[in-house]
Amino acid sequence: MKNQLNRHKERILRDSIFGWMIKISGFLVLATFTTLVVHIIYNASPLFYAPKFQYSQDYGNINASQPHAPILVENEWVFPRYQSCQLSLTSLTKNLILKNFDLDLCHDSIALKSQSNSLYLIGFKNAAWTLYEITGNSLSIIAELEMPSTLELELTKSKFDFSISNNILFVSLKNQKDVFVAFYDLEGASIKVSKHFSNVNSVHTLLNNSRLFVHTENQYWLYDMQFNVVQKLDIQADNAFVQVAPSSKEITLVSDSSELIKYSFVNQDGEFNLVQNFGHYYDFKYFDSKPVFESNLSKRVKGIFSEQQSNALIVVLDDSLFIFNSISGEKLAQYRLSDNIEYAYYSDEQILFTSSDQFNLVNITQLQGVVTLSTMFNKHIYSGYDSSNYIWQSTAISNVQGPKFSLTPLIIGSIKAALLALIVAIPTAFGGAIYTAYFAPRTIRNIIKPSIEMLEAVPSVVIGFVAAIWLAPIAEKYWLPLVFSIFAVPLIIMMFAFLHAFLHIKTMSSMAEKMRLLLVLVCVIFSIAIVFSLSSGVFSDTNDFEPVTGLSKSAIIVSIALGLAISPTIFSLIDDAIYQVPEGVKQASFALGASATQTLFKVVLVVALPSIISAIMLGFGRAFGETMIVMMVTGNTPIANWDVFSSLRSLTANITIEMPDAQPGSALYHVLFFSAAILFAFTFIINTIASLLKRKIRDESGRV
Amino acid sequence: MFKTKHSVNQERYIQSLIVLVSSFFVLVLLFALLFLFLFVSINGMSHFMPLKTYTITSQSHSGQAQKHIASHLKLEQLQKMYQSTGKGAKEKLTQNAADNLIVVENTNLHVVKMKNGDTFVGELSHYQAGANAAKTRDEQEVLEARTAVDTLVSNKQNILNTQIYSLHQRARVDQLPKTQEQLQLEIEYARWQAHLKSISQQLDNYYLVMLNADGSEKKIPLEHLDLIYQPIQFNFWKKSLFVLNRLLVFISDTPTAGGQSGGIFPAIFGTFLMVVFMAILVTPFGAIVAIYLHEYAPKNRLTSTIRICISNMAAVPSVVYGVFGLGFFVYGLGGSIDELLFSDKAPAPTFGAPGLLWASLTMGLLTLPVVIVSTEEGLQRVPHNLRNGAYSLGATKLETITKIVLPIASPGILTGVILAIARAAGEVAPLMLVGAAKFAPNLPIDGQFPYIHFERQFMHLGVFIYDGALQNRGQYDNSSLMFASCMFLLAIVLILSVSATIFRSKLRERYQKI
C-alpha cells in the first residue's frame, strides 16, 4: 500500500517535472526567434552609431630635439631621431627606443615619409642623396641619387617633402614663395625633370596620375609631368587649404568662405580632368548650432585626412575635429577641444596633435558608422564619376577608392527578379489551380496535386543548374522562336478550344476528363513543335536571327527558372483556397441558374480572393528570398535599372557572395547584416499581411 | 426569359476555353516536373555509360578520303564545339569547305579517360611498362604495370604531402643567419626533392601509346590514366557491369581535377553527416515544442505570439539563417569557445571558423518550423477520446502523451524529420556561409582523436553542384559529372519527400481506423 502511494507520488512528480520542461521548451522557441531578430538587428546597428572620439591627454611632451614629425609604427607613435649615423625610433609615451637602424652611410640630415606600410628615408650628404625603404625590421637602399645642380635653395632653410610611386620619386623644396620640384626616375637613378616655381602658395603632386597641382595666389593649375598646363581650375577661393588624397584621385580644398570643395578626376572623352563634385554641402556648424565660423576658415584648418577604407573625411581645425562622410557630405561627428591645435598627424584612425608643449591623442572608434542611410539608398556622385549613381562595390580598390555600399541596385534586382518570376508563376499557378480545384474530377486532382507539389521539393540548386547549363544557352540561341511561340501557342490553344466546343455542341457527348487532358497535351506539344520548327526555319535565313549574347545572364531567364520554382507553392495555396470554398455556395449559384463559368468568376473566385492574394504574396516573398536560382542564372552584376534584358544581383545573392569575405566588425559585415535585416523585415511584413488576409476569409466564411 | 441557344453556345465556348487553358497550365507544371526529372537523369546516366566512338572522314568530290578524325563526339557536337571556339567544323576537318564529311560508328577504337577529365579516342598501339621493358599488349603485364604505377604515385603523393610539406613549413624562416638545425632541414628537404624527382623519372617510363586516326602517335603516361575501354567489348551484361562499376566509383571516390572527374563520396558523406547531426538536434526540440503547443499551451496571446514566431521562422529566407549562423554561432559561440579552450592555437581559429557543428545547428534552426508544424499535424489527428480514455483510467498527462498520443502521432514526427532532411539536403546558400566548402579533402570523421571533427569544413552535394555550375557555365557537354550529382541529389530529395507523403497518408489511415 505504501509502496503504491510512493509510486503514485513519483508519477505525479515526474508528470509535473516533465510538464515544466515542456513549457520551458515552448518558451525556448520564442527565445530562439527573439535571439535571431535581436542578433541581426544588433549586428546591423553599428551603422547607426556616430563615430566616436576618445581623447587622451598628455601623450608625451614636446622635445626640442625632435626635428621630425611623429609617425605610427606598429600601432605605436614614435619619434624618428637621427644621431651618429643611426636612425632610432623612440616611443612617444614610454620614452623607449623601439627600433634602431644603422645606416650604411653617414648623412648630414634626413627626411622621412611614411607611405602605405613602408617608411621611406632620404639621407642628405652634400650633393648625394640616398633613398632607403624600411619595412618591418629591414632597411634597404632603393637608390642613390644626385642632388640637382640647379638647386639653389638651401636644404636647411626650406621645407623638404617627397613621395614615391611606381618607381618615381617626387621631391619638393619650399622656401616661402619659391618652390623647387623634381621627378626622379628610380630605375635609372636619374633626374627626369625639374622646375622652379616662384611666387606660388603650394605645389602638390598627384603622382599616381602623373599630375601636379599648383596653387598660386588665387589660382589653381593642373600640370602634367612635363610641366605643361593641362587644366586651369575655376575655383573661387583665395588662399584655400589644399589636401590631396593618398590615392591621387581626389583633391579637397577648404576655402575662406567656410566651404569644403571636393574635386576628383573624371574620364571625359579619354582625358582625365579634375571635376568638382557638386551636390554636397559640408557643414562646419556645430551640432548645437552655435554661430557659423568666421570667414578665415582655411587658416584654421590643420589637416584634412581621408580614411579610404571607410569613406570618412576627417577635418582637423585649430580647436575642433569633424568627421564627414566623403560620399554624401553628411557631418557625422564633431569634437570640440579645450586647447588649440598646432600640428596634427593622422594614421590608422588615430589623430595625434600638439598643443602648447605636449602631445594629445584622439582615437576614432566606430568608423563603420560612416555608412549612413543616405549612402545606402540615395544616388551619389562617387569620385571618378561625373553623374550621380547607385553603385555597389564592396571592396575598396587598394587605397584608390573607398567601398561603395548602395543597397538600391540590390533591392531593385531582388524586386525585379521576384516580379518577373510572378509574371510566369501567376498564370501558371492560377490557371492550374482553377483546373484542379474546380473543373477536374477528384480522382485526377488526387494524382495531379501531389505530383505538382513534388516540384516544390526539387532543390533550387538543381533548377538553377539546369537553367544555367542548359536553358540559358538555348535561350540565347533560339530566343526568337521562343518569343514567337509564347505568342503563337495561346492562339493555337484558343483555336483548339473553339474546335473543341464546336465538337462538344455538335456531338452533345461530354468527353472523359482523362481523354481531354491527353488531347490537350498532344495538341500543345504539336503546336509548340510546329511553331518552334517553323519559326526557327523562317528566321534562320534572315540576318536578324543572331544569338543575343547578353541574354543568357539576363533577368528573363531568371523569370522562367524562378517562376517555375515558385509556381508549385502558389499553385498549392490557390488550389486549397478554391477547393475550400463551401460546396453550399457553389450549389446555390448553380441553383440560381448560373453556368459553371459564371459560378467560377462571380462566386467562387470572389469568395476565395483574399486567400488567392495572400498566396500570391507568399509566392512573391519566396521569390524575393530565393538565392540559388538568381545567383546561378544571372551574371550577378548590381545594376540599378528595370531593364529585363540586363543582368541583376539580388540582396540574397549579394549576401552569399560577399559574406565569406567580410571581416567581422568591418563596415561590409554590418551592411550585410543590415541587408539581412531588410530581407527579414520584408518577409515579416508579407507574411503578416498574408495571414491577416487569411484570417479575414476565415471570418467571412464563418458568416457564410 | 429563357436563354437563347446562341448564348448557351457562347457559354459553352467560354467554358471550353477556360477548361482548356487551365488544363494547359496544369500540363505545363507537370511537364516541367517530368522534363526536369528526365533531363537530369538522362544526362546524369550518360556519365556512367560507355561512350560511342566515331570515325569522321572528310571526302572530296572525287571520292578521295583526305582526313580522319576519331572522336566520341558526333558531327553535330563537334560542330557545336568548334562553333564556340569561333571556327566552323568543316574548316577544321577539311581543307575544302565543299568536302563531304562522313561519320561512321567505329567500335574498335579505344576510349581513354584521363584523371583530369579529358577524353581521348584512338587506336591502342602498345604499352610501355618500365624503362627497359619491351612493348606489350599483354593484359597481365599491363595490370602489373598499372599496379606498379599506382604504388609509385601513392609514394609520390605521400612524400609531397607529409615530408616535403612539413619540412617546408619548418624550414621557412625569414631571418638570415641560419641555425645548424635549419641547414640540416634544408639538406633533408633537398634529399626528398631528389627522391621525388627519381620517382617522377621512373613514372615517365610507364606510358601507353595511342594512334590517332591519321596514324600519328600520342603518348599517355599511365600516371594520368583513369580508364581505358573499347566499345566493341561490351555486350549487354558487360555494359551493365561497366555502368555499375562506374556508379560504384562515383559514389566511393573523391573528386579530382576540381570536380571534373572522380567521384562524389566526400560530398555525399558530408551531406549525410550534417543532416544526421541536424536531425539529432532538431527532432527532440521540434517535437517537444509541438507537444507544448498542442497539449500544454493555453489559448492566450502568448501562445499565438509563439505561433506567429514559428510561421515567420518558416518564411524567413534561408540566407538570413546563414548570416545569423555565421554571426551568432561561428563568430559568437565559436569565438568564445576558442577563447576558453583553444587559446594556445590563437589566432588560428578552431571553432571560430565555419564548420560541421555550426552548419548542423544553423540547418536545425532553419528546419525547426517544418518539424514543429508536421508534428503538430500528427498530434491533431489523435482523437480526443483516446486522451480522455487514458485520463479516465488514471494516467497522468505525461503517461498519456508518451504511451498513447506519441505512438499514434509518431508518423507525424517522422514526416517532419524526413521533410527537414530533404530541405537540408537541398539547401545551399546558408551552408556556404557556415561550413560547406567547395573542396574539403579531410573528412569530418577519421582515425585521429577525437574521431569526429565537428570544427572541420565539409563538402555538401548542393554546394558541389553550385560550384560545378559556376565552372561549367553554358558548357552543357562537359558537365555530365555535375548532372550525375544533380541526379543523386534529386533522387535523394524526391525519395525523402515521397516517403514523407506515404508516412503522412499512413497516419491518416491509422486515425481513420480508430
Structural class of chain B: alpha+beta
Q: Overall pLDDT of chain A, averaged?
A: 81
DSSP strand content of chain B: 5-15%
Subunit arrangement of the protein: heterodimer
Cα distance spanning the termini of chain B: 54 Å
Q: Helicity level of chain A, as a percent range?
A: 40-55%
Beta fraction of the residues of chain A? 25-35%
Mean pLDDT score of chain B: 81
Low-pLDDT runs of 5+ residues of chain A are 541-545
Task: Note the overall shape of chain A.
Answer: elongated
The largest β sheet of chain B comes out as: 6 strands, antiparallel
How do the strands of the widest beta sheet of chain A line up side by side? 1-28-27-26
| Elements of chain B, N to C (H/E) | HEEHHEEEEHHEEEHEEHHHHHHHEEHH
Dominant shape of chain B: flat
Extract low-pLDDT stretches of chain B. Answer: none
* CA-atom Rg of chain B in angstroms: 31 Å
Largest interface: A-B, 104 and 94 residues
Number of helices of chain B: 15
List keywords for this structure.
heterodimer, A: 704 residues, alpha+beta, four-stranded antiparallel β-sheet, 14 helices, elongated, B: 514 residues, six-stranded antiparallel β-sheet, three-stranded antiparallel β-sheet, 13 strands, 62% helix
Describe the overall structure.
The complex is a heterodimer of chains A (704) and B (514). The longest helix of chain A has 43 residues, at 2-44. In chain A, helix 10 packs antiparallel against helix 11. With 704 residues, chain A is α+β, with helices and mostly antiparallel strands. Chain A has 14 helices and 30 strands. Chain A is elongated and about 115 Å long. Mean pLDDT of chain A is 81; it is low at 541-545. Chain B has 514 residues and is of the alpha+beta class. Chain B contains 15 helices and 13 strands. In chain B, helix 14 packs antiparallel against helix 15. The longest helix of chain B is centred in the N-terminal third of the chain and has 41 residues, at 5-45. The mean pLDDT of chain B is 81.
